[in-house]
Design goal:
Strand content: 15-25%
CATH superfamily of the largest domain: Periplasmic binding protein-like II
Order of helices and strands: HHHEEHEHEEEEHEEEEHEHEEEH
Largest sheet: 6 strands, mixed
Number of domains: 3
Family: Belongs to the LysR transcriptional regulatory family.
CATH topology of the largest domain: D-Maltodextrin-Binding Protein, domain 2
CATH architecture of the largest domain: 3-Layer(aba) Sandwich
Radius of gyration: 24 Å
Protein name: LysR family transcriptional regulator
CATH class of the largest domain: Alpha Beta
Organism: Aureimonas flava
Helix content: 40-55%
Shape: elongated
Keywords: DNA-binding, Transcription, Transcription regulation
GO molecular function, one term: DNA-binding transcription factor activity
Length: 309
């Protein structure tokens, strides 16, 4: 006769699956919206019930034991099945409700998603939103993310996806800087100017500046002594006269409206269509996900159309 599955064992399996995937009890706790001590105790109870050690613990790391590695994949599948059941149940309700975990890059999160969330919550008060911003790539399935919004080319995956509104990349500088140093008229005129470059957090690579010329696309990386790994930091330096930098127009639009920044080489600006929303197939019918994607599409069209260059 099979031993019945105790409720606390299911809780322990969920904690074990997340901790094994994320490499720490603290990260698992954030993913499950509980305390690290709750995750640790759940795993300890599970180890006692199973009679095996699942992790090798040190003050700095948490690693799966040989037995833990064997059981981890099964626990992850069980957790995914449980989440799919919850999503299927949620889909039977027409009104969006429940938790919605969103992961996004900093520019999209700060300038598009965060401003739209108050109106989204007023329209759907039964939805609770957990917005996680980082330019580093997250594992959507392992981290329990409902919707992720990413900028750039994406690898092939089994995730569902939707391209959002196109946006423009343009150079900007403060009026004071241009008055002192002159206005470049062509990309070649950038030589000798102070520039601020963006470094991608996910890859460590610098953003190559692309211009659309009569002869086709021109890619270059200007000489610079200043780099930043967040668009907001780059824009802040430009506002204070730090030089010329390239950014998405939806990021700088408020500064342009206030007269703090002006477009540079706007006739050579390029349009990009590389902002994508992704979500697991298990969330396909979730009313909260569907409602958010619809609101996000509208917000992107509005924000990407904001004048910035």
């Amino acid at each position: 006769m099979k031993e019945p599955m105790a409720l606390d064992r299911l809780t322990g399996l969920a904690a074990f699956a997340r901790a094994g995937s994320l490499g720490s009890f603290a990260a698992a706790a954030r993913s499950l919206s509980v305390s690290p001590s709750a995750v640790s105790k759940s795993v300890q109870r599970l180890e006692a019930q199973l009679g095996v050690s699942l992790f090798t613990r040190t003050t700095r790391s948490l690693r799966l034991t040989a037995e833990g590695q064997v059981l981890h994949d099964k626990a992850v599948r069980l957790l995914h099945d449980a989440e799919a059941i919850g999503q299927a149940a949620a889909a039977t309700r027409s009104e969006p409700s429940g938790p919605l975990r969103i992961a996004a890059s900093l520019p999209i999160g700060v300038h598009v998603i965060a401003p739209m969330l108050p109106a989204f919550r007023r329209a759907h008060p039964k939805v609770s939103v957990d917005l996680r911003l980082s330019d580093r790539i997250v594992d959507i399935v392992e981290d329990g993310i409902d919707v992720a919004v990413r900028i750039g080319d994406l690898p092939d995956s089994n995730l569902l996806s939707r391209r959002l509104a196109p946006h423009r990349l343009c150079c900007f500088a403060s009026p004071g800087y241009l008055a002192a140093r002159g206005i470049p008229r062509r990309p070649e005129d950038l030589e000798g100017h102070e520039t601020v470059l963006l470094r991608f957090q996910s890859t460590g690579q610098l953003l190559r500046w692309r211009f659309q010329t009569a002869d086709g696309a021109l890619d270059l990386t200007p000489a610079s002594k200043v780099w930043a790994d967040a668009s907001e930091a780059l824009v802040a330096m430009l506002v204070e006269g730090g030089g010329i930098g390239m950014a998405a127009t939806f990021v700088v639009a408020p500064h342009v409206a206030r007269g703090e920044l002006v477009p540079v080489l706007a006739d050579f600006a390029v349009e990009r269509d590389n902002i994508t929303a992704l979500w697991p197939s298990s969330r396909r019918a979730n009313p909260a996900v569907r409602a958010f994607l619809s609101a996000l599409q509208t917000a992107c069209r509005d924000r990407m159309g904001a004048r910035g260059g």
